[in-house]
Amino acid sequence: MGTTSPSPRPLLGRGSYLEALRIGEILRKETIGGALLVISAVIALIWANSPASASYFALRDLKIGYEPWQLELSLGAWAADGLLAIFFFLVGLELKREIVAGDLRQISKAIVPVAAAVGGVIVPALIYAVINWGNPETITGWAIPTATDIAFAVAVLAVIGSHLPTPLRIFLLTLAVVDDLMAITIIAIFYTSEINTTALLLTLIPLALYAFLAQKYRYFFGLKPAAAWFILLPLGFATWALLHASGIHATVAGVALAFTIPVLHGTKHGKHTEGPGLAEIFEHRFRPLSAGFAVPVFAFFSAGVAVGGFQGLVSALTDPVAIGIITALVIGKPIGILAATWLISRFTKATLDPELKWVDLLGVSLLAGIGFTVSLLVGELSFGLGSAANDHAKVAILTASILAAVLASILLGGRNKIYKKLRVAEELDADEDGIPDVYQDKG
Question: Which CATH architecture has domain 20-185+288-425?
Fold first, then answer.
């Protein structure tokens, strides 16, 4: 008797049913956040280019806070340094959950989105650097086109009505989370000029206390973890404030704090306790705050740029800064993601599912070219708020995001009928046990 050769390993897996449900829930919430993000950016652009533009910039530059603690900041700086820390806190929570309990805990499943994220960071950075090579004033913006704005990307999916199959949805979200982590790492390493060693060492005290209480929260706070907020929130703020004073960008505190949060169920008096882990609880509580307030407010204060009419727009778009950003996000990002994914398939002999094609991956890669939120942040760090280079970078980021969204909409929208059929097949539950058959067929 002949032996049947094993079927090739899929390049993009759909994961477990619970993972698919969780990803679907996250993307639904991010859709609302993405819509608010776009609305906030449009309002800022209209206001910044209206006869009342002076009031917009006056509001953005209005300083509030306590100066002795080095916290007298403009509203724009509070949005960038403070509110985005909440966003990166969620990024850290999501990444830790993926590593501890999600697909990233298995190298075979993690290698594709991680490699794609790396490719999607390196290639755009190189393209920008080549275009701006020899100009020390603009080369510093090389990291602007490295990140993916998942909220904006998901909002685009909602507009075109895409029934994107689960493997592509998981791939997009995981890639976005990983390259956001790489972006915050780049910010911490390359956008820190001077370090206050005393403040940095003092940061470790509230961070250590926060980590200890977070890990033992069921022991100290019982089965009502919301009570922990009264202690954890002040410790988290102290960590953020001290890291801000140290000279390292304060958003890094969000990721550092998130990595201390336990993902799995805790213990009390040595016994396993039921209920969700603190990471899941915090994610449910903070995601609406991040998607519904923090990120849209940041977009409002960061996206506003006085274009200066048609001539001003032409001047901005012909600047090497803008050319580098647009080329890197719209062309470099897809090239990096596709090249890395293809190399993984080549060396592991993994193949795309028969119902998916490389054009589908190209569409998702174009969505990843929507950099927006983190790109705006890196632009401010690279050139300084209010500088001409930063204004041109904003115009380029907005232009690139729109171009990437339109191109992705054309590709993915054209495949929407096929995606709808695939989603129907994914949701088929012939034995009516509450779990789609495709997840049971794979064991």
Answer: Up-down Bundle (1.20)
